[in-house]
Design a protein that fits this description.
By secondary structure, this protein is an alpha+beta fold. Helices cover 23% and strands 23% of the residues. It has one helix spanning 39-50, and strands spanning 14-19, 22-27. The protein has a two-stranded antiparallel sheet with strand order 1-2. The longest helix is centred in the C-terminal third of the chain and has 12 residues, at 39-50. It is globular, with a radius of gyration of 10 Å.
Length: 53
């Protein structure tokens, strides 16, 4: 599942990848989140990463 870039963060395109029973969030900038058993939690990690500070 790939999320489109937002006007706030045009260089951050996030998505998730599953390996076995774990889900990882990742970004086009090279960032990768921790392994999660919950897809929703991995998506939340990606959203936090893409949110401008």
């Amino acid at each position: 599942m790939l999320q489109e870039a937002t006007p706030d963060a045009p260089t951050h395109r996030t998505g998730t990848t599953e390996r076995g029973s774990f889900c990882f969030a990742h970004c086009s900038c090279g960032w990768r989140g921790p392994a999660r058993r919950s897809r929703e939690r991995a998506r939340a990690d990606a959203a936090l990463h893409a949110k401008p500070t």
